[in-house]
Amino acid sequence: MKDDLRIVSLIPSGTEILAELGLTDKIVGRSHECDYPPEVQNLPVCTQARLNTNAHSGEIHSEVNKLLQNALSIYQIKTDVLEKLHPTHIVTQDQCDVCAVSFNDVEKAVANLTNNTPKIISLQPNVLKDVWSDIERVAHVFDVDSLSCIENLEARVKIVQQRTKGLSATEALPNVACIEWTDPLMIAANWIPELVELAGGKPLFGITGQDSTQLKWESLITSNPDIIIFMPCGFDLNRTRTEAQLLTNRPEWQKLRSTKSGRVYITDGNAYFNRPGPRLVESLEVMAEILHPEIFEYGYKGKAWDIL
Asked: How far apart are CA 218 and CA 45, in angstroms?
């Protein structure tokens, strides 16, 4: 079966799961956002966005709402490319219509293929445990071993967890606000509060396993977090730095505890926190390094995160 595999991945986290399972050479097509591991970047691109992703966050949000209100998808599938690739399997997601092509669009695209009918594998993770389950499920479909992969990921999580376990007994854990979008202001949820807790912090606003929600500016100011971390969905480190200025230029920002103590951070949310795949473990290590530099030094600073 493995020799006949032709996999198209339409979600970055799916691509990274396939790579972690040793199936990179079986991927024949990707989404426009799949960029890791680097060797997939030369593969045919099967999706494109219907909006300008280089616009400011407020413009992107407005355009997304317009598309959704008109019952249009934010992304479209290049069915002509898909047709030529003759995929045996398509990996997609059913977790967020803003993050990648919708499951319904994939089903429609597959129904219109004339040459073959690939099997659709849809991921829907909300917490870390779901990511492990997705890895197991993908491994089962392709008849490869996932045990060593998951054991390694869980071991790295346990290292962080054990090293932060006694902190609450000796000191107050920092209150952490993780910002997923700046205009409008949105707080990160799903697996992010879980990562904060594992890394030795108290997540503000976001609830583990639930969708990210909008937050009033006044609520952020009133909560006065010990630490603020920017992790806008789809933005790298440099772009996050630019977008963060939308908030940091406001006069109230200078009065915040996190600003005064120099504990406002930017991250590469696109490569790490926003992708529910194997690199969420690296995201946890990044989070631990930010929250407790006195304990953790993985070497991610400057690459995955920085001080604003």
From this structure: 42
Inter-residue contact 205 to 215 (CB < 8 Å)? yes
Give ∠ CA 208-212-216 in degrees, rounded to 5: 115
pLDDT digits (tens, 9 = 90+) for 6-18: 999 999 999 999 9
- CATH for the 167-307 domain, from 3.40.50.1980, 3.40.50.2300, 2.60.40.3080, 3.40.50.880: 3.40.50.1980
Closest CA to 92 of 103, 81, 82, 83: 103
150 in helix, strand or coil?
A: helix
Contacts made by residues 281-287, CB under 8 angstroms, sequence distance 24+? 281/153, 281/156, 281/157, 283/195, 284/156, 284/157, 284/160, 284/195, 284/198, 284/199, 285/156, 285/160, 287/195, 287/196, 287/198, 287/199, 287/201, 287/229
**Amino acid in position 219:** S
How far is C-alpha 303 from the chain's CA centre?
16
What are 267's two structure tokens? 């991250």
Domain boundaries, given as residue ranges, for the chain: 2-124, 167-307
pLDDT at 51: 61
d(CA 240, CA 246): 10
Q: Using CA atoms, how far apart are residues 72 and 74, in angstroms rounded to an integer?
A: 7
